[in-house]
Write a structure and sequence with these properties.
Elements lengths: L20 H11 L4 H5 L6 H11 L15 E2 L10 H4 L6 H9 L11 E2 L1 E5 L11 H4 L7 H15 L3 E4 L3 H8 L16 E5 H11 L10 E4 L6 H4 L1 H6 L16 E3 L8 E2 L10 H9 L5 E5 L10 H8 L3 E4 L12 E2 L5 H10 L2 E4 L8 H7 L3 E11 L16 E3 L2 H6 L4 E4 L4 H12 L13 H14 L16 E5 L5 H7 L3 E2 L10 H5 L7 E5 L7 E5 L2 E7 L15 E7 L14
Parallel strand pairs: 3-4, 3-5, 5-6, 6-7, 7-8, 9-10, 9-12, 10-11, 12-13, 13-15, 18-20
Antiparallel strand pairs: 1-2, 13-14, 16-21, 17-21, 19-20, 19-21
Helix pairs in contact: 1-3, 5-7, 7-18, 8-9, 13-17
Membrane topology: Single-pass type II membrane protein
EC number: 2.4.1.155
Family: Belongs to the glycosyltransferase 18 family.
Length: 587
């Protein structure tokens, strides 16, 4: 094969880990004059200028010795959010986000120090080009989950001292990225270290950058409320298996998807901050104030109430029912409706109430945790059968087949006395829960991971430690790795959970060979590599011993898949109580 030869002025580094570098060098050597943009990026035909372009402007090659892509800068940690306001207050797309950030200004705490980064934030859901109108409906009962998460991420990054670039349209995006006509994007425009976006925003960025988007690939952090499982993410696999989803096939590392709740270990848990957290004085006042014998129903749209009359009739026998619904004519006449009101007014209602009533929809929203934080018990309806993209219109097209056994699985795991799992169609079951709730005092409860401090700690460590640009790294530290075997038909997620641990996909590359496994007393007498399944590494028992199969495609590592005739070899780790994204050695 033709090879690029070093010249007297340019000594090339090892290209291990950069399999396409050699081909790119050869192509650029011949074709750099074909587009004037290459010259504008400093390419002059010499090997060094080409290598610098391919390693620094794009990311096909390793850095030359002595060159640094991004200098480390020290963050000026902020003690309030006022510095954000000028960038938000006059932009219609950020109006709801701005109001939430203003309303929560006092509860944010000063964050830890970190390296100052240039961060681009492009919420595709708020752009006019998305045609979702999510910002317009936010003030009239529309879905708020994505906007809550974006608000709290922006606040967190600002408090941590990073330099934020907020995009709200395709023209904003192209300006930030330096996209002009067909010219390759100029990374120097903002020198982005990280790009937070969502799936719609990712597709917009990829279209705007065309072929040069690859240079940013490892920088993406994609907000994805319900999660993307590895088989839906892998473009070729999804095509082959006919896994249809308008949101899948991005072929990112699955942990680049950031979820609202810790749905699956394959993705990264970003979370949000529960509003409103009580000060010490407010907590004392809440204890001294007698709660009214009332329930508040979780459901802003009257359509959520349809078919729930019998369930609500049972609750009404025990207490007064209040609501914040968009249409009073379509709910029971005994319900006291306050209409669509501000978040602070909802908090007041929760502090007066004893029960927050789930109607089985919407799924996995922030409101259930807000209720618990205000000392209000949550009735969490079971789902019969469990709902997923295979049988639910709401989840249809979502890039996963995760099953929900209740309206709010995260809250379900919290359990009694805070969360009561009920069958809406069984009056005895509902009455059992209501009687128990009314016979005790429910204290305010909020898991640490949904507090300001918890989110600041988590996001700061993820920014500092989580690295998708340089292959398998040293975080989480290998000292946290524990090997667990998953029996037939059991996923690694479940096997680790049964052992009191969590599946850690970052460890898969470290155990994906016979030599490494032998260090953990898992010996393979025979082995092979394959990309035919998402359950590798795994083994079967043969006459000659364990026959191990290792994963040949790293994008197919999965915590959530199982196999009826293979025993999975699972990488697990411990976790900090109420901070599941981090292991004890991770902080």
């Amino acid at each position: 094969d033709e090879q690029i030869k070093e010249d007297d002025n340019c000594s090339l580094p090892s290209m291990d880990g950069y399999p396409e570098c050699q081909d790119k060098l050869m192509w650029m050597k011949k074709m750099w004059k074909g587009d004037p943009c290459y010259a504008s990026h400093g390419v002059n035909g010499t090997l060094c200028s080409i290598f610098i372009y391919l390693s620094e402007t794009e990311s096909w090659c390793p850095l030359l010795p002595g060159r640094v892509k991004h200098a480390l800068r020290y963050a000026e940690v902020q003690d309030n959010l006022s510095g954000l306001y000028p960038a938000l207050e006059n932009r219609a797309q950020y109006r709801w986000i701005y109001q939430r950030i203003r309303s929560m200004d006092e509860i944010w705490n000063i964050g830890p120090h970190s390296s100052l980064l240039q961060i681009l934030l492009h919420p595709g859901v708020v752009t006019d080009e998305s045609h979702l109108k999510i910002t317009e409906t936010a003030f009239s009962g529309g879905p708020l989950g994505e906007l809550v998460q974006w608000s709290d991420l922006i606040s967190t990054l600002h408090i941590l001292g990073h330099h934020l670039h907020l995009s709200a349209s395709l023209s904003d995006l192209k300006d930030f990225l330096g996209v002009k006509s067909n010219c390759p994007a100029r990374r120097s425009k903002i020198e982005a270290d990280l790009i937070y976006t969502d799936i719609i925003g990712f597709q917009q960025i990829k279209k705007a950058l065309q072929g040069s988007w690859i240079q940013y690939k490892c920088m993406f952090r994609v907000l994805d409320s319900f999660g993307t499982e590895p088989d839906f993410n892998h473009a070729a696999w999804a095509q082959k298996q006919n896994l249809k989803s308008p949101f899948g096939r991005l072929s990112l590392i699955p942990m680049q998807f950031y979820t609202m709740f810790p749905h699956t270990p394959d993705n990264t848990f970003l979370g949000f901050v529960v509003q409103h957290q009580l000060s010490d004085n407010e907590a004392e006042q809440l204890k001294s104030n007698k709660r009214l014998n009332q329930a508040l129903v979780y459901g802003k749209s009257a359509t959520f109430w349809e078919g729930k009359e019998a369930y609500l009739d049972v609750i009404h026998k025990y207490m007064e029912i209040h609501a914040t619904v968009d249409n009073s004519t379509r709910i029971p006449s005994y319900v006291k409706n306050h209409g669509i009101i501000k978040g602070t007014e909802v908090q007041t209602l929760l502090r007066q109430s004893k029960v927050f009533v789930g109607l089985s929809f919407p799924y996995e929203g922030p409101a259930a945790l807000e209720a618990l934080a205000n000392g209000c018990a949550f009735l969490n309806p079971r789902l019969h059968p469990p709902q997923s993209s295979l049988n639910s219109q709401f989840f249809k097209g979502k890039p996963n087949i995760r099953e929900l056994t209740s309206q709010h699985p995260y809250a379900e795991a919290i359990g009694e006395p805070y969360v009561w799992l009920v069958d809406m169609h069984n009056s005895t079951d509902v009455e059992r829960a209501l009687t128990a709730i009314l016979n005790q005092t429910i204290e305010p409860y909020l898991p640490y991971e949904f507090t300001c401090e918890g989110m600041l700690q988590r996001v700061n460590i993820l920014i500092e430690k989580q690295d998708f640009c340089h292959g398998p790294g040293s975080w989480p530290p290998l000292s946290a790795l524990k090997i667990v075997e998953a029996k037939f038909g059991t996923s690694c997620k479940q096997a680790c959970q049964d052992a009191g641990l969590i599946c850690e996909p970052a460890f898969f590359p470290h155990i994906n060979n016979a030599k490494s496994l032998s260090n953990y007393s898992a010996d393979c007498q025979e082995s092979e590599q394959s990309d035919r399944s998402l359950v590798f590494p795994a083994y079967s028992n043969t006459a000659s011993g364990k026959h191990c199969v290792f994963q040949s495609d790293p994008l197919l590592f999965s915590c959530v898949r199982s196999h009826k005739s293979l025993i999975r070899i699972c990488p697990c780790r411990d976790y900090i109580k109420d901070q599941i994204a981090l292991c004890r050695a991770c902080v």
